[in-house]
Amino acid sequence: MNKTKVMIVDDQAISRHLFELYIQNSEKYELSFSLSSASFAEVYFLKHKVDLILMDILMNDGSNGLDAAQRIKERYPDVKIIAVTSMPEHSWIERAKKIGVDSFWYKETDENTILDVMDRTMAGERVYPDRPPEVTLGLAKSSEFTERELEVLRIITTGATNGAVADELGISENTVKAHVRSMLEKTGYQSRTELAIKARVIGITIK
Amino acid sequence: MTLSSLPLVYDRIFGICFLFLFTACIFGLVRQIMSGIKGAGLIPFSVCFLISFPVCIYFDLVCSHKTGKFTDLLGRTPLYAFIILTALLFAGAAALFVVTYMRIKRTLTPASLQMGLDGMRDGVLFSDERGMTVLINDKMQYILNCIAGAHAPGAESLDNIGEKELINGCYTEKQGDSVFLILPDKSVYNIVKEKTKAKKSGFNEYTAYDVTELYGKSLEIKKRNDNARQVNEQIREYSRKMDSMIRDRELLSAKIRIHDDMGRALLSLRSYLSRQEKDREALLTLWRVTVSVLRCETVPDVSDDKMDALIQAAEAVDVTLNFDGEIPDSDTARDISAAAIRECLTNTVKHAGGANLYINITTSDDKFTVKIKNDGRPPDKPIEETGGLHTLRETVESAGGEMKTEWENGFELTVTADISGVLR
Hints:
Chain A is of the alpha/beta class.
């Protein structure tokens, strides 16, 4: 039986090694490449066949696994991709679905094992969690924030002014301020700066 | 009874009264002329003057006992007529004064105009087409004294004030299209010049608007914005540092999971030893995984340099990267260079069948240039920028850079960008 050729893309050696060991101890999978950066993952496809990719999203070198997944899916749509992460960033699940990423796995909190997700993905199933893991931001749970609030928060964590946030989202500055006020009330934080820093630390929004 | 029958004492009294009336009429006339009243408006006081003057002379002559034809003529005036005339003259003069006063009060005279302008907070100066000052208020005079001294030429001192050297510690500040004049007493003025016309003559109107309060508030806003920019920059810096902290957190999470797995393995082993279950192979696999990963904890993560990853990727597809020059030490330079090399690597493998990529990097001032060629088959037609090349061009141009592709002497890609540019 031909084994499924797997490429691992994860900047953490320990995570990479764990995946490598799962694959090596499996009869169904064969390790093709194990990379620490998503920047050039698609280059390998020029001369090698890969059936499945375990793609971490947030990388050491600043590359983004979802960007790489998009490039790969555009050129090699038959390759299956499982996005893996431990960050609860809300927008990644939706973006992964839009790109066509086949499955999504949370390293820490997912009830399914990675092998189980790999099996189901290769069988044609799309395995996605219902929602990102719920985390606590101040006095609020992540599920208490609206989509728009999270969009505003994501941009604020980059240090953008309210005006810049308004321009990027196509809304008024007063609306941005209202969203920030709402989030401050929900979290109990004292300032916009505290909210931005805490959100970034927890990873609820990453831009 | 006639005027000449009056006793001398009455002659003296009437003489004084008419002398007073005569003086008052002169005063009234002069007042009217000064107020700009002309023509028919002057007739009433003139009539009073013309009547009171000869009567005044009559009484003066009578009191001085210098009689003659003039005194005889006026002396024949009936007394009752004289008294009526006197009453009318005095009443008329009084009424004229009241009317004149009311009229002057309602009329905009040069004096009232000057008084009004002097009371303004803002400076005002009118000059004719030759630049001669026609009208200036106290505030503007004060401003001119501050910026150019007591003998300031007036309008000329206000023209192009932003480019002039001012005295007494005065200076100007440009904000957008506006020029603000700041005086030693910290008052701030915005000088505006407009052309105006009056009675077919052209005038220049200079207004120095007192914007001291507004300027102070704009400085305060600027200071707050600067503070906000600083805070935002600190957040951006913190965000950049956050990435490495978050990766450490991910690493810790992975370790925790592995140790959890190890805990389960221990429990499973205990269960196996006590019950001799059939899942021996699965248990051994789990042990092997856990122990191997524990050993791996001492292995450092590989380099996070994009170029190392790129070289490895090139080797995997049998292409050697040959570098001439060094990529500048900036995120933009590294990201753009890596993206350009990746596209050329793809092109070399897919289309050109090459085995070597030659990358030349040069820097000058704040710009860097990357030129990339391969040793494969040259293109047989102009390069169509689709897919990756199109995306690369968007990336380069969004950072304010330029991209050029050549094909006639073999494929060559040239990218130039600012070292300190920002990728959007």
